[in-house]
Amino acid sequence: MSILSSIVGFFTGGSKTADTVMDSVKRAGDMLVFTDEEKSITNQKGMELFIKYQEATLPQNVTRRVMAIVIVVLWAFVVVLTILVGLVGIIGDFANVTNASTFVYGVLKDVITIPFGAIVGFYFLKRMIQK
Question: Model pTM?
Fold first, then answer.
């Protein structure tokens, strides 16, 4: 008899099960709609998280800058060295110097380019994301 009265009460609105189901439906419907108030709360939490991130990564700024400067200077030095050795090899028609230029270019291409891109990206990526 209890089961039958629960079923009848569910359909007529007189049972706790019906109230629980209706409350769940209301909450689910409320979750589907993203109101302006909820948007502002979410934006505020996002800004708080961004400020905490900025404070946490503040000591890294000097390190990023030093690493970027050192890597850029080394990369520029190797590029200039490659060009000078290549010009000496071409002008003087020295086969060994031309081979040295090819070797230095290979080192630049295979060894230096990936760390250069990673470190310069590490330094500038933070600024790009902020904009």
Answer: 0.45
